[in-house]
Amino acid sequence: MVSPPHEAMHRIFQDHPGLFSRVSKVLGLAFPSPTSVTVMPTDLTETRPVERRVDTLLRLDMADGESFLLAIEAQGKKDPDKPASWAYYLSYLHTKYRLQPLLLVVCQDPATADWAARPVHMGPRQWAALTLRPLVAGPHNLPVITDPAEAKADLALATLSAITHVADPDIGAILKALSTALRDTPETVAAPIVELTAQGLANRPAAQQWRNLVAVDLSFYKSWLSEEIRDEGRVQRGAEDVLLVLEQRGMDISDEIRERVTGCDDPEILRQWLTRAVTVSAAEEIFAEE
Q: Would the CA dihedral through 26, 174, 58, 110 be positive or negative?
């Protein structure tokens, strides 16, 4: 099953195709900015029933007339089967499009990045018929961006930095710099960044930090994440109101009742309980009709 971080690590290059040129400079290569970028079909399936799909595929056309294909793979862990698949992708792309292919692998942990970056020689030991050399981007070589001005100068790179440095001790500062940079950014630009970052952080501890920052710094955005956070806040306040009314009326609130109220995530049910809390003679009676 494809995970949100997997999607975020390669989809950001679809939303911001020019990002590759900046990433390549960070990685020590001199790829100029393309004059045009075409998002290519990702389906590499053959006519026989063997389905192979690259995560993201872009065609980059350069000012000097050179064009090449950029295949981007998001890799969450070591997978001994991947090098063969990657070699197949590159060979197939070269055969189908008659353009030179390049593979960029994006990782979130140094161990996986180190594994992915190792050249893989295919062929007998006396002669390597094919050598796979992925270009790898991850926490080991992408910048840690904690300056809001630097983040604002390149929001896409700052987002990729946050996603790939999810386990970095400075992740809080990285996310704060990004949220600060997004404050006066048009919503059409900021909302996808907010959601890509949330996907990239997934269920890591940093995800809650990002949710808190979005709730405070970016509360005016109407992205699904912002709406979800605000809904959670309304539910929490609704539960607190029910308990507060019961407490003010001197009711005895057991741990079971308290847990049931605070565990409810349905605003309509909480409103019903709040209405009953005003008149019931015992706290448990707010649940009487259920």
A: positive
CA pseudo-torsion sign 172, 175, 178, 184: negative
How confident is the model over 239-260, as a mean pLDDT? Answer: 82
Instruction: Of 239, 206, 222, give the one whose Cα is nearest residue 230.
Output: 222
The residue assigned the tokens 């910048």 is 143
What is the domain range of residue 31? Answer: 4-137
Burial class (CB in 10 A: 0-12, 13-18, 19+), 75: buried
pLDDT digits (tens, 9 = 90+) for 206-243: 988 898 888 776 665 555 555 555 555 565 676 777 88
Q: Are residues 17 and 125 in the same domain?
A: yes
Both 21 and 79 in a single domain? yes
What does the block give as tokens for 159?
């987002």
Output the pLDDT for position 232.
58
